[in-house]
Target: Glycosyltransferase
Amino acid sequence: MEECQISVVVPCFNEEEVINTFHCALMWVLGETRRSFEICYVDDGSRDSTRAQLRALAAADQRVRYLSFSRNFGKEAAMLAGLRMSRGAAVALMDADLQHPPGLLHRMLELRHHGYDQVVARRDRSGEGVLRRAASSAYYRAMGRCMDVDVVDGEGDFRLLSRRAVDAVLALPEANRFSKGIFSWIGFDTVSFSYHNVSRAAGRSKWGGRRLLNYGIDGLISFNSRPLRLVIYVGLALAFAAFAYALWIAAVVVAHGAEVPGFATLLIAIVALGGIQLATLGVIGEYVGRIYGETKRRPLYVVRETDESAHRAGAVPA
Ligand code: UDP
Ligand code: MG
Model:
């Protein structure tokens, strides 16, 4: 393939209802740019017809490539696979559900031409539930306090990266990938513009409440050891308070003799300390678990097939 100017990486998980609409919209926009391009679809172990559709799209146009996982490995793994696959001088990351309007590529490319290595489309939160809005804004405020890297509300994975930025992302060896943090960590000149939030064209979001909460914890823990530090401070402060309290009780006993009441105080102290210890253990456990995960050195995904392997196996007519 001759030199490719733009790669678009699209992670897809059970997107059979939108994938065709999305593909048409994207092809149209890419055609308008009048540049050489490729689309790298990554099927994240979909259980519907997504894989078959991607196979057909790739067979019909050699600028369309795809790779399919053996099971669902998560969006982070899918994006990583897509970035590894991409060959373009600039690489855009985009969701398949049309929540990342393909038309914004024009604006991104224009900004890329001004020399920015990362062009981020930041969505506003219009049309989202009050509860979800409040939760994410609280989360980002807490993240800002706790993390070593900047993570901005609404700045997601929808972005255009220069080749050197992509190479920087790919050079990070960690298995626990939190790309919001990684994109911020690699640095380079970054610019962002905001766009109006759109809701999913069809299908369902794969992010339920629990998944979001887990994602939040991942983000917090992936990028520093501040939670550990905090826990140490709290532990020290409590131990100090308990010691002071013990001294005071000793003084009271010496002055007035022992009294039986105080049982409640004792119980509260035990329960409170027990709770804090459990929380502390949880935080430490998170880090240990992560160390365990990293030392296993497992690949982040397993490939079932790619457009090339499908061709070789004769799954699609050449
Ligand atoms: N996705 C994926 N693997 C997953 C979950 C999601 O590749 O395990 C893809 C999905 O197909 C879509 C994008 O990631 O292209 C965003 O997912 P979704 O729309 O469910 O997330 P939301 O927009 O609600 O944050
Ligand atoms: Mg979506």
Q: What stands out?
A: The mean pLDDT is 84.
